[in-house]
Specification:
By secondary structure, the chain is α/β, with parallel strands linked by helices. The chain has 18 helices and 16 strands.
Length: 536
């Protein structure tokens, strides 16, 4: 009988030759990593490698729709990881358009420095949760090569279920399980199992995200279910207390609160199921799971179910209340906002609901706040201090909705863990959104405009590239050590109740410490709008 061990050894020696003849040999341009579910072949880019479209959970399709993520089956052979996987079913972030994407979308992408990490110095891991309001976006939209090459970090970008597919609730589900957050936790468990295979340290995992991704990070900070899955957190433009007053953008809009009681989501789910013709007791979920994804991916359902539920095992408390009570994971935190957050959102509604003059500005104040608060806000934000009434209103909303709530959260976090606060202040940042700027509302440092400084998105000027290098240095140093101390960059002090915020702008002196509470009138918001910036 043949010696099968010897046969296997000979086959192993011949495999590279066979692969070379087939044009698929592993090498500097097609590196292979053996994950816990099977080997993947990535793409080399010189100084860094990418491995895209790696499944981290089974496709949540058919009977797995609205179920917690299940393990992906091990595959045979080497899986090609040279292109991103499908994006999750979604609607456009801005503007018209129908649904795109696939329910088979639970894929992640790894960007790593080329070559193995130095002995005894494994790389930190940074796990990115994308923004998009929980109804749009994808991990592959972000190229983190700067963090890999300059910062020596392994960066993982993640897809997660969106809208009605990710945040639906119903009595037959036993509540609103938060499938979007469960997908993210599954990705973090994948990172824990596979980090060392990519030369990284599973004990130095940083979760970071912007907008809905930042709200996701907030949720993981306050979720018992996420304990032990990460060791640092970065919250960009989406703190636990982010909100917006009623009628801020359009007359028919109520108060925006990204976290809602589970009972509200469940009631909305029962109503939605009935409207879809799936209301027979005991058979609602089977009926809904038979529906075509397009029947569910409507604008009404995708946006109605874009809010994260609390009051359950995943989020026992509303996240901002959890911070106030000290009920969160003890990890260092970077958090911040852009200087002109709300300009991007307001710009999308100005054509339908303009603010042409001071009278219109006062109408907005009266519609969004009670009379004493409206008078106090106008005294602190007189139209005469701004280029246009629209800029004045956007500034009010930025401070009330983003900057001051973020600083309030920082104070709660800072009682227990190191907190480093920032404000992205480059009003010349490139507009990469493709959306035109209204003549009376330049975007400035709008929501998301810091992203090209951390990811390769659009070209930057030389001073902006310098700022990008500094920001990348801060972010990756924090991932490595828990302290954002970059060589040659100004010191970033720990935040002291909003008075030690690092303002980030290009050029000499562009990075400096500011008293953001004073600059953004946070004492006013603490006193006049306590439902947002202070415990009720």
């Amino acid at each position: 009988m043949p010696d099968f061990r010897q046969v296997r050894r000979r086959c192993a020696l011949l495999l590279p030759v066979v692969l070379l003849l087939l044009g698929t040999a592993p090498g500097p341009d097609r590196p292979v990593v053996d994950t816990d579910r099977g080997p993947v072949r990535g793409v080399g880019h010189g100084a860094y490698d990418t491995f895209e479209g790696i499944p981290f959970a089974a496709p949540p399709t058919g009977p797995l729709r609205w179920r917690l993520p299940e393990p992906v089956r091990r595959w045979e052979g080497v899986r090609d990881a040279g292109a991103a996987g499908p994006r999750c079913v979604q609607l456009p972030a801005v503007g018209p358009g129908g649904p795109t994407g696939s329910e088979d979308c639970l894929y992640l992408n790894v960007t790593a420095p080329a070559g193995r990490a130095a002995a005894g110095r494994p790389r930190p891991v940074m796990v990115w949760f994308h923004g998009g309001g929980f109804f749009s976006g994808a991990g592959d939209a972000y190229r983190p090569d700067r963090a890999a090459v300059q910062g020596g970090a392994v960066v993982v970008t993640v897809n997660y279920r969106l809208g009605v597919f990710g945040l639906f609730g119903h009595p037959e589900l036993g509540g609103a399980p938060g499938f979007a957050l469960a997908d993210q936790r599954a990705a973090l468990r994948w990172v824990r199992a596979n980090a060392e295979r990519f030369g990284a340290d599973p004990h130095r995992v940083t979760v970071f995200g912007e907008s809905a991704g930042a709200l996701s990070v907030c949720a993981h900070l306050t979720s018992p279910a996420s304990a032990g899955l990460f060791h640092r957190a970065i919250v960009q433009s989406g703190s636990c207390s982010t909100t917006a007053p009623p009628r801020a953008l359009l007359p028919g809009l109520g108060t925006y609160e990204p976290f809602v009681p589970e009972r509200q989501t469940v009631a909305d789910g029962a109503l939605a199921a009935a409207r879809l013709g799936c209301d027979r007791p005991g058979g609602v979920l089977d009926c809904l799971r038979r529906l075509d994804p397009a029947a569910l991916a409507t604008a009404e359902l995708m946006q109605r179910f874009s809010l994260v539920s609390y009051g359950n095992d995943v989020l026992p408390l509303e996240p901002r209340r959890a911070l106030e009570a000290g009920r969160f994971h003890r990890v260092p935190v970077i958090q911040g906002a852009t200087r002109d957050e709300m300009r991007l959102f307001l710009a999308q509604t100005l054509a339908a609901y303009p603010i042409p003059d001071e009278a219109a500005y006062r109408t907005r104040l009266a519609q969004s706040f009670d009379a004493p608060t409206a008078r106090a806000v106008e005294a602190s934000y007189p139209v005469s201090d701004f280029a246009t009434p629209a800029v004045a209103w956007a500034t009010v909303l930025t401070d009330a909705s983003f900057v001051c709530p973020t600083l309030r959260d920082g104070a709660a976090l800072g009682r227990h863990v190191p907190v480093y606060a920032y404000r992205f202040s480059d009003r010349g940042a490139p507009n990469f959104t493709g959306q035109p700027e209204p003549s009376d509302l330049p975007y400035g440092a709008a929501h998301g405009f810091e992203l090209p400084y951390l990811f390769t998105v659009v070209p930057l000027t030389e001073p902006q590239a310098g700022l990008a290098d500094r920001m990348t240095g801060y972010w990756t140093a924090f991932a490595r050590t828990g302290v954002p101390a970059a060589p040659g960059a100004p010191q970033w002090p720990r935040d002291r109740n909003g008075t030690s915020v690092l303002s980030l702008a290009p050029g000499a002196g562009g990075i400096r410490t500011v008293d953001a509470r004073a600059e953004h009138h946070c004492a006013l918001w603490d006193a006049r709008w306590p439902g947002v910036t202070r415990t009720r």
